[in-house]
Design goal:
The complex is a heterotetramer of chains A (about 80), B (about 290), C (about 170) and D (about 775). Chain A has about 80 residues and is α+β, with helices and mostly antiparallel strands. Chain A contains 3 helices and 5 strands. Chain D has a 7-stranded mixed sheet with strand order 4-6-2-14-11-12-13. Chain D has a 5-stranded mixed sheet with strand order 1-29-28-27-19, with helices on both faces. The chains are: A alpha+beta (about 80), B alpha+beta (about 290), C alpha+beta (about 170), D alpha+beta (about 775).
Chain lengths: ~80, ~290, ~170, ~775
C-alpha cells in the first residue's frame, strides 16, 4: 500500500519522504503501521488532514476498508464557506 | 458624557438666535444624510443640532420674477418632482438626483450638499454652471453670494459661525439654453464622484455658442470653473474640433489628488472626456427643446 | 442625558417615546418600540435595510434622528399587508424566491412598495435604479427584480378590477 | 442520466419529463416555510434579541495595524455612570499555542477576539464594555486609553517576504520546508501538490503561457453585522443567542475561550442574515459571556458595519504565477501554479485549497501546485464561499483563455478537449466519479448566450470552476404530531432556504405534502451535534440525515400499524404516505393522521432520527460562467451586459433556490472582479470601512443572471443531490477578467478591474 503525505508532515517525520509504504486492509491499520515506522506521524496526521482514497475524501477517518484501494493520500482538511 | 441638544426653530431669526447663543457649538441639520454619518463616526460633537426644516423659507420652492428660489433644506426628491426646475435647469436636477439612493433623495438637500463643502459634491458644479446664488442669513440680516464663492476649501465655507444658508436662487436662462451634469463612478449608483462635470450652454439663432460655463468637481480642492471654456466655445459650433479643445482645457484646469477613489492621471483625463459629453448633452437638449 | 418627547404615528398607531438626541429613527423603532423588522446593515445610509417611509417619502431610518420624526407619519415593514393577507410584493417575493437570508427583505419590500405606489408600471431599469440603495448580497437581485415586476402587474390588475367595479 | 434545464423550461407550467415524475415534491418550487416571517419583518435575527435586564456591549479597537500594548487604562471608562464592567484578554481562559484542533487554533482565536499583548491589525479588539445603554457603552469604549509601542506594519505579501522585515508572530516558523526553519518568519506554511513529472514534461509543450496574477483582500459582505446576546447564570451555565453558521461551532469555541465545559453552554440560533463563510467563526460570543458573568446580567453586543469591515473575516488577497503548456492541437501537457495568499494576522489562509482546486476541472497528468501562507497585518482571513478556489481559478482560467487565443481555438472547445470526466485523477489525488463539467461546457455551447454577436469594445469571457463539496456530521430528528403533521429538526442554521429543502426531502421520503411538514433549526440542547452550515454540505449531508430519519420513522410507523392490525410487521409496507398491509385487501391503508391517533395505544409518541457522519459521496461540483461586458474606451468603466451561470447541480431539490445560489455567487464574483477591495493607508489603516467605498454590486450594476441547471445526479445521494452553494463564486473572476481582456485586447491580470486600471491599460 502506497501512502502519500504532504510536505509539511514529510519534513517533520519522514526526512522529507513523501511516498511511503504501509501495511493493512483498514485505514487505521495502515496508519498504525506508518506510526511504527515514523513515530508521532499518526497524531500529526490527525490534525487538519483528510484522507483521499480513490474517489473519496474522508474526514474523521477511522477504520475504512481499503482492500481495493491502490493508494492513500493525505491532504489538507477541506473547510467550506 | 457628551450632551447634545436639539431644536427645530420655525423662523430664520429663531435659528440665528440659537446659533449666536451656542457660539460655534451648533450644527445645522437639513436632510442630515452627511451630518448623521459624521455624528455616528464621532467626527463631530455639537452641543446642539438645529433643524431648519420647519423654517418656511428653507423648505419651499418659490418661483420669483427672474428665477426660482429653492429652500436650502428642500429634499432632492421634491426638487426632482418640480416640473419647471426640471425643464429649465436639467443639469441641476440630474446632479442633485445623483446624490445617493432613492432613500437619500428623500432627505438630502442642495443646501446640505453645498454646506458640507466636499470637493466631490455633485450638485455644486451644476449650481455654479447655472450661476446660482446663495442666500445667507445672520445676526445682521440677509446677504447674497455666488455659489462659486461659497466653498473655500474642503469642508470649509464662507459661512460665519452664526450664519445659515437659507435658500439658493437659480436665475432664469435665455431661451436657447440648457445644462447637463455627468459624473464618473465605478458602479452605477451609490458612489461618490471620482470626477464630476457640469455644463451650461446657450446657443444663438445660428446654433453657435453664445455662452458656456463648464464647472468641474472632484478634481481640485473645490468645484472649479474652466476659465478658458468661454473663449474656446463662444462663437463656435459645438463639434468635435471645439469639443476636443475644450477637453484639453478641462484637463489643464484639473488640480486633483490621489486618493482611494481616483488617481491624478485618471481624474484629469476623464474630466476632459466627461466635459465633452456633458456639453454635447446640453447641446442636444437645446436642439430638442427648439424642435418641440 | 437630554431626552426628547417624540410623538409620531407608526403604521397608523399613535406612539410616544423618549429619545436621546443622537438616537436615530431606526434606534427608536427597534429599541424603544421593539419594531425589529426594520434592520440595521450599515448605519450610514448605504444598504437600505432600514428603509421606512416618513410622511410618505422613502428614507433610510438610520439617517433620520428620532426627534426629527416628531409629528410625522412613519410606515415600516410591520405595517405592510393586512393582518390576514400579504401585500402583493410579499406574495411575489415568496413565490419568486426573491430572498435567501432575508435580512435585506423588509427594506426591499418597503422600498419597492414606495416605487409601485408612485409608479405602477416601472421598467426593469427603473426598478433597478430605484432599488440601487438596497443592498442584497445573496440573490444577485435577479429574483427580486422579477418579484417586483410581477407584483406591479398584480397591483395594476387589482386596481383595474377595483375601477371596473366602481364603474359598474 | 443527465438533463439540462433552463429557467424557462422549469417554470411550473412546463411538461414534466419522465425522470422528474419519479418525484412528487422534489423539483417543485413551493413557498419556503420560513418565508412569511421574513417578508413581514417578524423573523428574529441576531440583533433582534431583547432580554430582560439586558446590558449593551461595545468594543475598544486598535487604531494601529501593528503595535505592542504597553498599558490599557480603563479607569476613565469605569467612572462613567452606567458602565458595569470592562474585560480584556486576561479575562479569557489561559490558552497555549498547542490548544488547537483540526479546524481551529484556539490560542490564535482568543488573541483575535481580544488582543493579548500585541495588536495585529487596524480594528483589532482590545477591551469590551458592558453598560446600561448603547450610548454609554460606546462612550465608555471611547474613553479606554491604550498606550502603544508602534511597530512597522506588514501590509502585503511583498513586504512580509522581505528579509529583515518586522515579524508579526515570533512563534511562527515556516512549516513544510525541506530544511526546518530556524528563524521566525511571516511565512507560516508551504504546501505542495504534485502529479506526474511536470517540470520535465513541460519541455514537450509546444505552446506555453506564463503569467502572474494578483488579487486584493475582499469581504463576504453579508448585510447582517455580527450580533449576539449572552446570559450567564449563577450555576455557571451560559445561554447564547446569536446568528452564526453553526450553533455547535459557537458552543465549542466559546466554551474553550471562556474555560467552560462545552455542555455548560447552550446556543440558540437566531436567523442568520448572510454568512458566506464569514460566520463560521466567533468574534463576540466569549466577550458577551464573560461580561454577563461579571455583571450578572444578560449582555448584547452588536457590531456596526465599520467593525465588520475592519475586524471580521475577509478572504485573502493573493498572487498566482501560472505556467500552462499544451501541444499545437490544444491538449494540455503540464501545469504549474504558485500561489501566495494573505492569511491576515494569524496563520491559516485557504492557500492549500487554492492549490487543490486550481487545475481540478482539467485532465492534466503533470501538475505542480505550490502554495505559501503569508501573515500580514490585516484581519485574520475567514472562510468565504469556496475558500481559496476563486483566486486560483482566476489565474488558471485566464491562462486557458490566453492559450485559446494563441491557438486560435474556441475557449469552450479548448476546455472540452481537456476537461475532467469520470475517471480523471485530480491533482490532489482523488479520481472523479460521475461529474458534470463536460455537460456544463456542452450546455454553454448550445446556449443562446454563446451565439449572441458582440459589438466593438464588447467582450465575452468564459471560465470554469470547481468545488469539492463535503459531507460531515449531521443530525436530524423527525416527529409525528398528534394531528398527523410532521416536524423536522436539524442542527444546521438556515442560511439560504435549507428549511425548504429539508421539508421537501422529508415530504418526498414520507410520501406526503410539504404543507404537512414543519422544518425547524434546533438549539444545541435539542438536537445532537451537527457540523456547521458550510462547504455546500447541508442539502447533501443534512438532507441525507433527514431522509434517514424519515425512513427510521417509517419503520416505526409500519410497526405501529402492524401492532394495531395485529399482523406481522413484515407484512406492512409504506407507500404514498400510508401504511399498507400487503396481501390483505380487507385492511384499509392507514394514513399518518390515523397513525398519529393510534400512537399512544400502540406504544407512545412516534419519531425517527439519524445522527450520521457522511464521510463519502459528496459529489464534486463544476460550473461554467459566460460573461459579456462592454468597456467605455474613454473612461475604462465596465458594464456587464449579459451573464449566464451554468452548473452541474446533481439534482435540484428546490430549483428556485438553486438558481438563487448560482445568481448570488455570480454577483459576488462580479463584485470581486470589478470593484471590491480592501484599501489600506500606508500606516495600515483601512480606508474603506463602509458600503460607500467598499463597492459591492448594487441592483443597477447587474443584468438578469441567466441560469442553466445541468443535472448529473450524484450517485452518493439518494436523490442525486450535489452541494451547489460554493461552486458559483469560482468562475466569475476569470469570466469577467477574460471578458474585459477580450473587449480591450489586453490581458488583465490584476483584480479588481476598476476603471482606473483599465483606462491606464488602454492608454
Amino acid at each position: 500500500m502506497k501512502v502519500f503525505i504532504p510536505s509539511q508532515i514529510a519534513n517533520g517525520y519522514t526526512n522529507g519522504l513523501h511516498e511511503l509504504n504501509a501495511e493493512g486492509e483498514k485505514l487505521d491499520q495502515v496508519i498504525r503501521s506508518l506510526d511504527d515506522q515514523y513515530p508521532g506521524i499518526k497524531n500529526a496526521l490527525s490534525e487538519g488532514f483528510a484522507c483521499a482514497l480513490e474517489n473519496e475524501i474522508i474526514h474523521d477517518w477511522f477504520d475504512e476498508d481499503i482492500k481495493d484501494v491502490k493508494s492513500v493520500r493525505f491532504i489538507p482538511a477541506i473547510e467550506g464557506g | 458624557m457628551h450632551q447634545m441638544n436639539f431644536a427645530a426653530p420655525k423662523t430664520v431669526a429663531g435659528a440665528v438666535k440659537l446659533l449666536v447663543q451656542n457660539k460655534g457649538r451648533s450644527k445645522v441639520i437639513a436632510g442630515g444624510t452627511d451630518l448623521l454619518v459624521q455624528l455616528r463616526m464621532g467626527k463631530i460633537k455639537p452641543g446642539i443640532i438645529i433643524d431648519i426644516k420647519n423654517i418656511k423659507e428653507a423648505n419651499q420652492i418659490t418661483i420669483e420674477k427672474n428665477g426660482v428660489r429653492i429652500g436650502a433644506a428642500v429634499s432632492g426628491a421634491v426638487v426632482g418632482e418640480h416640473e419647471s426646475i426640471k425643464r429649465n435647469w436639467p443639469g441641476v436636477v440630474e446632479a442633485l438626483e445623483l446624490i445617493g439612493s432613492t432613500q437619500i433623495q428623500g432627505r438630502a438637500s442642495l443646501g446640505g450638499n453645498l454646506c458640507n463643502g466636499s470637493p466631490a459634491a455633485d450638485s455644486v458644479p451644476a449650481l455654479i454652471a447655472n450661476e446660482a446664488i446663495c442666500r445667507i442669513a445672520g445676526p445682521n440680516g440677509k446677504r447674497d453670494i455666488k455659489v462659486q464663492n461659497f466653498v473655500k476649501s474642503p469642508s470649509k465655507t464662507i459661512l460665519k459661525r452664526d450664519e445659515i444658508l437659507t435658500s439658493l436662487f437659480l436665475p432664469d436662462k435665455p431661451n436657447k439654453s440648457s445644462s447637463a451634469y455627468l459624473r464618473l463612478i465605478p458602479r452605477t449608483e451609490m458612489d461618490i464622484a471620482v470626477v464630476g462635470v457640469a455644463a451650461s450652454l446657450t446657443l444663438d439663432e445660428n446654433n453657435k455658442c453664445l455662452d458656456a460655463i463648464i464647472c468641474l468637481g472632484a478634481v481640485a480642492p473645490k468645484a472649479t470653473v474652466v476659465k478658458t471654456a468661454k473663449k474656446i466655445l463662444v462663437g463656435k459650433k459645438i463639434n468635435n474640433d471645439s469639443l476636443a479643445t475644450l477637453g484639453m482645457a478641462c484637463e489643464d484646469t484639473c488640480d486633483p489628488i490621489n486618493d482611494t477613489r481616483g488617481t491624478i492621471a485618471y481624474r484629469t483625463k476623464v474630466a476632459g472626456v466627461l466635459a465633452k459629453r456633458a456639453v454635447q448633452i446640453a447641446h442636444t437638449r437645446i436642439l430638442e427643446k427648439a424642435n418641440l | 442625558m437630554n431626552k426628547h418627547h417624540v410623538s409620531m404615528s407608526v403604521n397608523g398607531d399613535p406612539v410616544e417615546i423618549l429619545c436621546e438626541t443622537q438616537q436615530t429613527l431606526l434606534d427608536c423603532l427597534r429599541d424603544e418600540l421593539y419594531l425589529t423588522g426594520t434592520k440595521e446593515g450599515c448605519s450610514t445610509g448605504d444598504c437600505g435595510a432600514c428603509s421606512v417611509t416618513l410622511n410618505g417619502r422613502l428614507v433610510c431610518s438610520c439617517l433620520v434622528l428620532g426627534v426629527e420624526a416628531n409629528g410625522c407619519d412613519v410606515q415600516t415593514i410591520e405595517g405592510i399587508g393586512s393582518e390576514k393577507t400579504l401585500h402583493p410584493l410579499q406574495k411575489t417575493f415568496l413565490e419568486e424566491a426573491a430572498l435567501q437570508c432575508g435580512v435585506c427583505t423588509p427594506g426591499f419590500i418597503v422600498a419597492a412598495k414606495s416605487l409601485l405606489d408612485e409608479k405602477p408600471n416601472p421598467s426593469e431599469e427603473e426598478i433597478r435604479y430605484w432599488l440601487a440603495g438596497n443592498l442584497c448580497r445573496c440573490t444577485g437581485y435577479d429574483k427580486i427584480i422579477k418579484a417586483v415586476i410581477k407584483a406591479a402587474k398584480i397591483m395594476r390588475e387589482e386596481n383595474e378590477q377595483r375601477t371596473n367595479r366602481r364603474a359598474n | 442520466m443527465s438533463s439540462v434545464r433552463t429557467e424557462e423550461l422549469t417554470r411550473p407550467n412546463r411538461k414534466a419529463t419522465e425522470e422528474e415524475n419519479k418525484f412528487k415534491v422534489i423539483g417543485t418550487r413551493p413557498v419556503r416555510p420560513d418565508g412569511i416571517d421574513k417578508v413581514t419583518g417578524k423573523a428574529n435575527f441576531g440583533a433582534d434579541i431583547v432580554l430582560n435586564g439586558m446590558l449593551y456591549g461595545a468594543i475598544h479597537r486598535s487604531k494601529h495595524a501593528h503595535a505592542l500594548i504597553k498599558k490599557v487604562d480603563v479607569s476613565k471608562a469605569l467612572k462613567l455612570e452606567g458602565v458595569k464592567s470592562i474585560i480584556t484578554h486576561s479575562d479569557l481562559a489561559t490558552l497555549k499555542p498547542t490548544d488547537k484542533n483540526s479546524n481551529v487554533n484556539f490560542f490564535d482565536l482568543a488573541r483575535n477576539v481580544l488582543a493579548k499583548d500585541k495588536v495585529l491589525y487596524d480594528g483589532h479588539a482590545i477591551a469590551a464594555v458592558a453598560a446600561i445603554s448603547q450610548t454609554i457603552a460606546n462612550e465608555a469604549a471611547r474613553l479606554i486609553e491604550v498606550e502603544y509601542k508602534i511597530l512597522k506594519p506588514v501590509m502585503n505579501i511583498k513586504t512580509a517576504e522581505k528579509k529583515n522585515t518586522p515579524i508579526i508572530d515570533k512563534n511562527i516558523f515556516t512549516e513544510g520546508l525541506k530544511e526546518p526553519a530556524k528563524k521566525p518568519s511571516n511565512i507560516a506554511k508551504k504546501v505542495e501538490f504534485l502529479l506526474g513529472d511536470p517540470d520535465k514534461t513541460f519541455e514537450q509543450a509546444e505552446i506555453v503561457v506564463d503569467r502572474k496574477y494578483s488579487t486584493q483582500t475582499v469581504h463576504q459582505g453579508y448585510i447582517e453585522p455580527h450580533a449576539c446576546a449572552a446570559s450567564y447564570t449563577k450555576d455557571n451555565q451560559a445561554t447564547i443567542w446569536c446568528s452564526s453558521q453553526g450553533a455547535f461551532m459557537v458552543r465549542a469555541y466559546t466554551a474553550k475561550l471562556c474555560g467552560l465545559e462545552t455542555s455548560k453552554i447552550k446556543v440558540i440560533p437566531a436567523e442568520i442574515g448572510g454568512g458566506f463563510g464569514g460566520k463560521t467563526t466567533i468574534y463576540l460570543e466569549p466577550l458577551a459571556v464573560k461580561l454577563s458573568e461579571k455583571t450578572g446580567r444578560p449582555v448584547k453586543i452588536v457590531m456596526n458595519r465599520t467593525e465588520v469591515m475592519r475586524a471580521t473575516g475577509p478572504t485573502s488577497g493573493g498572487t498566482a504565477h501560472v505556467k500552462l503548456g499544451a501541444d499545437k492541437k490544444g491538449n494540455f501537457i503540464a501545469g504549474l501554479i504558485e500561489l501566495k495568499y494573505e492569511a491576515g494576522a494569524f496563520a491559516g489562509s485557504p492557500v492549500g485549497l487554492g492549490c487543490m482546486t486550481a487545475f481540478a476541472p482539467y485532465n492534466l497528468k503533470h501538475v505542480k501546485c505550490t502554495g505559501w501562507d503569508v501573515l500580514v497585518n490585516r484581519p485574520k482571513a475567514a472562510a468565504y464561499r469556496a475558500p481559496g478556489a476563486p483566486v486560483a481559478a482566476f489565474a488558471v482560467e485566464s491562462a486557458i483563455d490566453e492559450l485559446a487565443s494563441k491557438l486560435q481555438m474556441d475557449p469552450i472547445h479548448l476546455r472540452l478537449k481537456n476537461c475532467a470526466t469520470e475517471g480523471t485523477t485530480a491533482p490532489y489525488g482523488v479520481t472523479f466519479d460521475k461529474i458534470g463539467h463536460k455537460e456544463c461546457l456542452e450546455a454553454a455551447l448550445n446556449s443562446n448566450h454563446y451565439r449572441k454577436k458582440l459589438k466593438p469594445y464588447q467582450g465575452r469571457g468564459i471560465a470554469s470552476g470547481f468545488w469539492f463539496n463535503i459531507g460531515g456530521n449531521s443530525s436530524a430528528e423527525i416527529m409525528i404530531n398528534e394531528d398527523g403533521n410532521v416536524t423536522v429538526a436539524t442542527g444546521n442554521p438556515d442560511i439560504g432556504g435549507s428549511r425548504a429543502s429539508m421539508a421537501m426531502m422529508a415530504a418526498e421520503t414520507l410520501g406526503i405534502n410539504m404543507e404537512n411538514v414543519k422544518p425547524i433549526v434546533a438549539d444545541t440542547e435539542s438536537i445532537p451535534y451537527s457540523d456547521l452550515t458550510g462547504g455546500s454540505r447541508v442539502t447533501f449531508a443534512t438532507g441525507k440525515a433527514v431522509i434517514e430519519a424519515a425512513e427510521d420513522m417509517i419503520t416505526e410507523m409500519c410497526k405501529r400499524a402492524a401492532k394495531f392490525w395485529k399482523v406481522d410487521p413484515a407484512q406492512v409496507e409504506w407507500k404514498n404516505g400510508k401504511a399498507i398491509c400487503i396481501e390483505r385487501t380487507d385492511i384499509e391503508p392507514m394514513s399518518m393522521k390515523q397513525i398519529a391517533k393510534i400512537a399512544f395505544k400502540t406504544g407512545g409518541a412516534i419519531s425517527g432520527k439519524a445522527n450520521i457522519n457522511v464521510k463519502k459521496g459528496a459529489g464534486p461540483g463544476f460550473g461554467l460562467h459566460i460573461c459579456d461586458v462592454e468597456v467605455d474606451p474613454e473612461t475604462g468603466r465596465v458594464t456587464v451586459l449579459k451573464y449566464t451561470a451554468i452548473q452541474d447541480v446533481g439534482k435540484a431539490i428546490h430549483p428556485s433556490y438553486v438558481e438563487g445560489q448560482l445568481q448570488g455567487g455570480a454577483a459576488q464574483g462580479i463584485g470581486w472582479a470589478l470593484n471590491e477591495e480592501y484599501v489600506y493607508s500606508k500606516d495600515g489603516n483601512l480606508m474603506n470601512t463602509g458600503f460607500l467605498d467598499y463597492r459591492i454590486p448594487v441592483a443597477s450594476d447587474l443584468p438578469m443572471i441567466e441560469t442553466i441547471l445541468v443535472e448529473v445526479p450524484n450517485p452518493g445521494h439518494p436523490f442525486g443531490v450535489r452541494g451547489v452553494g460554493e461552486t458559483p463564486i469560482v468562475p466569475p473572476l476569470g469570466a469577467v477578467a477574460n471578458a474585459v481582456s477580450n473587449a480591450i485586447g489586453r490581458r488583465m491580470t490584476d483584480l479588481p478591474l476598476n476603471p482606473i486600471k483599465i483606462l491606464s491599460e488602454i492608454g
